[in-house]
Amino acid sequence: MDEYVVHEEEKCPDFEFYTTGLAIRQYLMEMGEGSPYDFYKCFKKIKPTVSYKNVVYYFYLLHRAGLIQRVRSEPSSRGGFDKSIYRIVPGKEDDPGWLHPQQIFYPETRLGGRRYRRIKEEVELGLE
To answer: pTM of the entire structure?
Structure first.
């Protein structure tokens, strides 16, 4: 007779936000702590286009901005790299950086790609 292993279903919040930074904040506020991969598995259900690489980059930006902190690392269930576990830094729950953390380090990203290239070309041509 075959034996089946029943895995505990992953706990995912009902995301109110579609933007990655705000969704990470909601996830960490509801779960208390979590890893980029655990968040990715949940968020991919409502935003199938999100990539794991993008999620890891957001966690990196949020950590670098001081909005989240690494609590500990756990061995990966599949071997390889350890899993980093993060939580929100107390007092940073309502920081405006959650909406667009990349703007903290790269302010020109607020312009959007086309407008940034147009302004850059104008500057290079001496029109501005």
So the answer is: 0.78
